[in-house]
Write a structure and sequence with these properties.
With 356 residues, this protein is an alpha/beta fold. The protein contains 14 helices and eleven strands.
Length: 356
């Protein structure tokens, strides 16, 4: 099964993906293959992947340290130097085997080395499968500011094999689930009901949910590849969620939040704001809040925390002309982009979250 994202970067699943990958390697015959991993995917995923790939020449393994804290220009510089030292040329190929940090950073390194070499994403985390590796967004953080440096440039293909999920801790699975919940909130109530009925879900159901989430994202990206309008809806919960994630990432006294944990908070806050500004139904706000808090632990915020998080929002990539732009909902599946939100309501949203 495959999906097209903006006429490039088809997504293939399981064995079909490895067949397509090996066909691509045979037909394109890259001069060299560079396989980017982090220390976790080197240990847990490389052997399985290596058994599946068919390429006559030696493959160069490039390894980075795992974690969002390493998603920066310093790591990129090390990789650009390694590619240069290993004689990479314009016909080389980079394969990114890992979670969102590896696919975001690896895609950016490939897209900028010698003005761009081809790359393929093989996501190994649930978050990367349903979000980070699909849609052509590449990039790195600038200090504590999420994804400030990057380009939109699609992978040659994305290969999704849920077998890799067997290597993930439950916290990482929950982190990925947040993006699935987001896809549900911006798409349809039926899908929301399906993905929040966790007690009835089987591993087979998860395969189908991953495919459905990829379809939702691919459809949006195909219609709006450069994020001029519709694609902004994929940022639901992210305006505050990214600011929360950045704040916790750079304050050592705080417990670092995974991306999905921060976005889960951001979605509750955004849904409260939707009730206040877009007449989103109050009963659905309560239901969404309870469902999310049933999955993710509540996080405490002091007044100082909230003020610093609000200050960080000015760096959000959706902002323009000095305005902070939110994605809000009129109802589940009915989005409104470029919404202005007064700071007073943001404070009220945090107060609601603390008590929900």
């Amino acid at each position: 099964m495959s999906h097209s994202a903006a006429n490039k970067g088809p997504v293939y699943f399981q064995e079909d993906g490895f067949i397509k990958l090996n066909t691509f390697l045979k037909e394109e015959n890259p001069s060299k293959i560079f396989l980017l991993v982090d220390n976790n995917t080197h240990r847990d995923c490389l052997a399985f992947f290596s058994e599946k790939i068919e390429f006559q020449e030696a493959i160069e393994i490039l390894e980075i340290e795992a974690g969002e804290i390493n998603k920066n220009l310093e790591t990129c510089s090390g990789l650009w130097n390694a590619l240069s030292d290993l004689d990479a040329d314009r016909k080389s190929l980079m394969i990114n085997l890992g979670g969102g940090v590896v696919t975001d950073l690896g895609g950016f390194v490939a897209s900028t080395f010698k003005r761009g070499i081809s790359y393929i994403n093989v996501p190994t985390s649930l978050l990367a499968m349903v979000d980070a590796s699909v849609g052509g967004k590449t990039g790195v953080d600038l200090g504590n500011l999420k994804n400030q440096i990057g380009v939109i440039n699609h992978a040659e293909m994305v290969l999704i094999d849920p077998t890799f999920l067997g290597t993930l801790p439950q916290t990482e699975m929950r982190s990925g689930l947040a993006e699935i919940l987001k896809h549900a909130l911006i798409s349809s109530e039926d899908y929301w009901n399906k993905v929040t009925n966790l007690s009835g879900l089987t591993l087979e159901d998860l395969d189908g949910i991953i495919k459905e989430s990829v379809e939702i994202k691919a459809k949006v990206v195909t219609e709006d590849p450069e994020e001029n309008g519709l694609r902004k809806t994929l940022n639901y919960g992210h305006t505050l969620g990214h600011a929360i994630e950045s704040y916790f990432l750079t304050h050592p006294e705080k417990t670092t939040l995974l991306h999905g944990e921060a976005i889960a908070i951001g979605m509750i806050l955004a849904t409260y704001l939707s009730k206040e500004l877009q007449e989103f139904p109050e009963d659905k706000l309560k239901e969404i809040s309870l469902k999310i808090l049933d999955i993710y632990d509540r996080v405490e915020f002091s007044k100082e925390d909230i003020q610093k998080i609000i200050d960080l929002m000015k760096y959000d990539k959706k902002n323009s002309h000095g305005n902070i732009n939110f994605v809000l909902l009129k109802d589940i599946g009915n989005t409104v982009i470029d919404c202005k939100v007064p700071n007073e309501l943001i404070w009220n949203a945090f107060e609601y979250y603390q008590k929900a």
